[in-house]
From TrEMBL:
Keyword Protease in annotation: yes
Entry's family note: Belongs to the peptidase S58 family.
Keyword match Hydrolase: yes
Signal peptide residues on this chain, from the entry's feature table: none
PANTHER family: BLR5678 PROTEIN, D-AMINOPEPTIDASE
Protein name: L-aminopeptidase DmpA
GO terms assigned for molecular function: aminopeptidase activity
Amino acid sequence: MIPTPIEPAAAPPRVGRLPSGARDAITDVAGVTVGHCTLAHDGCQTGVTAVLPHGGNVYTDKVPAAAAVINGFGKSIGLVQVEELGVLETPIALTNTFSVGAVAQAQIRAAIADNPEIGRAWPTVNPLVFECNDGYLNDIQAMVVAGDHYARALTGAGVDVAQGAIGAGRGMSSFGVKGGIGTASRVVEGGGRRYTVGALVLSNFGTPESLVLAGEHVGDRLSATLATSLANEVAAPEKGSIIMIVATDAPLDARQLRRLSLRAGAGLARTGSVFGHGSGDIALAFSTAYTVPHAVPHQDATMPAVAMLHETRLDPLFRAAADSVEQAIIHALWHAEAVTGRDGHRRASLRDVLAL
């Protein structure tokens, strides 16, 4: 049975002064859509989430992108080519650690279906899959995620984004309670222009005593409340992960996008993370302002000329990235309902534990 996300009655704490987009989601960046496939039965608590940068063929019309590995305790695939070429060739996929290979293969098959010359007359394709370890709630050794689940996430992609224990976030934990998928957006204006920055996170990090909610240190309270149920975890070292996806409609090149992706770390730090030894903390940023064509009409063709935003105009985008990532983490915690999974392991919802 696939769970229906439960919308909390109260509003979550809000971060910063910048206005949000209409949905307060990454999909406020025009063209971006998000889809989930959730697997939730007995010890199987996992899934796939896909982020599509636009509605066309991502292989033939690539978007500029860059990543920042804040702490590299992770098993993602595709980052080397993103660093080298600065573009995306597939949608971005999120799943559990042991399902990276299956989802990457599904991405390759989907790209070939749309572009039959991949790997023949054309170069191969670079799948891009990020992961977090959901093994506390999910029987990760069962490796139940298959190519069809990625296809379902793509088919279901839209602008309304379910949050919490959904898709790849189904089995994730944060701060000793339920984690998962969260999203948010911020809008900046200046010089007669208006730009949107949106973030989506797969939140699976944090020790209970560290939690900070919109500047309020609630970790001691959370730690004390969980002390009986999580006696062996409250003082345990950080060993979780978080994936942070940042999208913008501002015209930035790959170098500028890497700078933007680094600011996701500021939002992450505000929630209480110190990027611990066992935590895989990775951010990727992309722009929808233009696309880079895969094919060129003739041998002497040049790259399309695009006027990039000046460096001195980046600070508002940096703030928007930090605020939207922090807000997305709060949303992941706020929207996640309690889940019981493998061997009876359970994660309560933050709102239930702290009576928020």
